[in-house]
Design goal:
The chain is built from 16 helices and seven strands. With 363 residues, it is mainly alpha-helical. It folds into two domains: 3-264, Lysozyme (Orthogonal Bundle), CATH 1.10.530.10; 280-359, no CATH class. Helix 2 packs across helix 9 (228-245) and helix 6 packs across helix 9. The longest helix is centred in the first third of the chain and has 39 residues, at 79-117.
Length: 363
């Protein structure tokens, strides 16, 4: 979940927003507990190229594999969107992913061993990346602690000791065992790893309700009925796992597609950040408005009578903002200048209606 606020993580700030203040109930072993999760927001760096189509890995212990960007057999018609989103995510988060790559030299092998013992795909280790950037001292504003960002009640339920003298949530080995236990419980309930990642963020209740509402256990079918932050959490996980599992295709690549070397930090430093390219005519007819809440692109196109393709072209990174994986609190939305007055007049309606759309309560 995204937080907009300061957290004690050395390489970046963990983000917080109002949704993070709401606890999500879930039932586990006949007990009710509550869970809040956090995610990492980072600075911009190097863009990347699209990944080629990849085969799906084999089942692990009877469990489904984790889908990665480029695996058309899983994503189907959504594959191009997932690959494009991963490109944008890499562009925005390269700096932190570079730091995590170094931390992973020590921690990834430990996590891999624990996950393997529990028949959990190794790609689930990247959940700890988006939760804490592998920082065992990470503390969220609502009290989630450690690399796996456990709340105190959940940690104890998973067998960790949390008291004034000892906090096992900060112990990489013990907290990873607890995370594996919790992930297994969620998988037994949901039978899909993307749904598990969603439930790890929001709690199982919103996921189960979305499944009941749609009659589907496919993330893409239930996505619109999940909290916006949870949607972004799952997309961030897919992107992060895809980048690290296909390092040669992503990290160290320039926008032109030429490899810049294996040193991500060097590549990010040498490469110029990607910038939108607009014609003089487009700039002449363009107005920029700063928004703090995401607005539905479809709704804006319909209500303001703007061609959707134009909105997409002028706002190429909007989906990162829409799914709470954007670096800044505000987004500079580009719209036609002759629609500015109409936008200002309709902004309150657009904001209210968009919140309903993103929460799945729109009529």
């Amino acid at each position: 979940m995204q937080y907009k606020g300061f957290v004690f993580v050395a390489l970046s700030a963990l983000s917080i927003n109002s949704y993070a203040q709401k606890y999500q109930d879930f039932t586990l072993a006949a007990k009710n507990t509550r869970l809040i999760k956090s995610d990492t927001i980072v600075k911009k760096a190097t863009p990347l190229v699209a990944a080629n189509a990849l085969p799906m890995p084999a089942l692990i212990g009877g469990k489904k594999p984790v889908p990665l960007a480029g695996q058309k057999s899983y994503f189907g018609a959504m594959n191009d969107y997932v690959v494009e989103y991963t490109n944008k995510y890499m562009d925005a988060h390269n700096k932190t992913l570079s730091v995590v790559k170094e931390r992973g030299k020590v921690n990834f092998s430990l996590i891999d061993n624990v996950l393997a013992k529990n028949d959990i795909p190794k790609e689930l280790k990247y959940l700890a990346v988006i939760e804490s950037a592998l920082n065992n001292q990470a503390i969220s504003p609502v009290g989630a602690v450690g690399p796996w960002q456990f709340m105190e009640s959940t940690a104890r339920l998973m067998g960790l000791t949390v008291n004034n003298k000892r906090d096992d949530r900060k112990d990489f080995y013990k907290s990873t065992h607890a995370a594996a236990k919790y992930l297994s419980v969620l998988y037994d309930q949901l039978n899909d790893w993307l749904l598990v990642v969603a439930a790890y963020n929001s709690g199982p209740t919103p996921v189960l309700r979305a499944m009941e509402k749609t009659g589907s256990n496919n993330f893409w079918d239930i996505k619109q009925y999940l909290p916006r932050e949870t949607q972004g959490h799952v997309l961030a996980f897919i992107a992060t796992a895809s980048i690290f599992e296909n390092m040669s295709k992503f990290i160290g690549m320039s926008k032109s597609g030429k490899h810049n070397g294996s040193d991500v930090a060097t590549s990010a430093k040498e490469a110029a950040p990607a910038k939108p390219s607009f014609s003089d005519e487009e700039l002449k007819n363009m107005a920029i408005v700063r928004i703090s809440d995401p607005l539905s692109m479809d709704l804006m196109a319909q209500d303001l009578k703007i061609e959707r393709k134009l909105l997409d072209k002028w706002n190429p990174d909007y989906d990162l903002f829409e799914t709470a994986n954007y670096n800044d609190e505000f987004y500079s939305l580009r719209i036609p200048k002759d629609k500015l007055d109409n936008f200002i007049e309709h902004k309150e309606f657009l904001t209210k209606k968009s919140k309903q759309i993103f929460s799945g309560t729109a009529m």
